[in-house]
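Hello again, I could really use a second opinion on something today. I owe you a coffee for this, so here goes:
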Amino acid sequence: MARIMTKSKFSRTFKVLALGSFALVSSLQAEEEDTKMSIEMQTVSKQLKSLRKIAKDDFAAAAEAVHKAHVALLSAMQYTASMVEEMPAGDEKAKALADSRRLLGLSYAALCELEIAYLEKDPAKIEAAMTKVKGTKKEGHKKYTDD
C-alpha cells in the first residue's frame, strides 16, 4: 500500500535535498577555484610561514622549509596564473605571461638565496634574502592575484 507524503514531510525532505545539493555544488566550486598553481603556491606560503615557528638558531630546519618552498614554486612555474589565463589573446596577455614568469623566476632565485643563507648560518644574508622574497611576492600578488 502506497504511503502518501504529507506536506510537512515533503517540505522537510525538499529542504534536506536542497541543502545537500548546495553543499555539493559549493565544495565542487571550491575545488575548481583551487587551481594547480594556487595549490603549489599555498605550499610555498605554508613553508615560509613555518619559519616563524622554527627556532632562530635551527638553521638546518629553516633551510629544509625553504627548500620545500622552492620545490613547490618550481612546480607552480609550469602553470599560468588564472588572471593571465583569462585575459583575451593578444599583446597584453603575452606581456602579462612573460612578466608573471619573470616574477616567478625572481621568486625562485630569492628562495634559493634564502636557503643558501640558512645553510651558511648568516643572519644578515637571511634578512636580505627574505626582503627579496617578500618584495617579489608582493609585486606578483599585486599584479596577478585577487588577494
In short: The mean pLDDT is 82. The two ends are 59 Å apart (CA to CA).
